[in-house]
Amino acid sequence: MPHIISLSYMTQVAEKEIYTADETKALLKISRSTFLRLIKKGVLQARKVGGQYRILGEEILNLIRPQVIKRRKR
Q: Where are the domains of the chain?
């Protein structure tokens, strides 16, 4: 069963969904400069497709729930 986490009462992030840079920035409520800094530092994994960033939902979830992932690996 895919993991889905709600970031607000109306927004959900699906693990296997692919999100654009604008969608990701809106979901995380971050600026463009913060978005690019997270990618540059390797905190957020993204791929460029046709010159535009694409982010897997799993990467967004990993960013907002790092403690859950660390506990699962034990």
A: 4-72
What residues form DSSP beta bridges with 48? 53
Q: How far is residue 51's CA from residue 4's CA, in Å, rounded to a whole number?
A: 28
Q: pLDDT tens across 13-43, in order?
A: 899 999 999 999 999 999 999 999 999 999 9
DSSP category for residue 11: -
Asked if residue 2 lies in contact with residue 16, where contact means CB atoms within 8 angstroms, the answer is: yes
> Pairing state of beta strands 12-14 and 4-6?
antiparallel
Fold of 4-72: Multidrug-efflux Transporter Regulator; Chain: A; Domain 2 (1.10.1660)
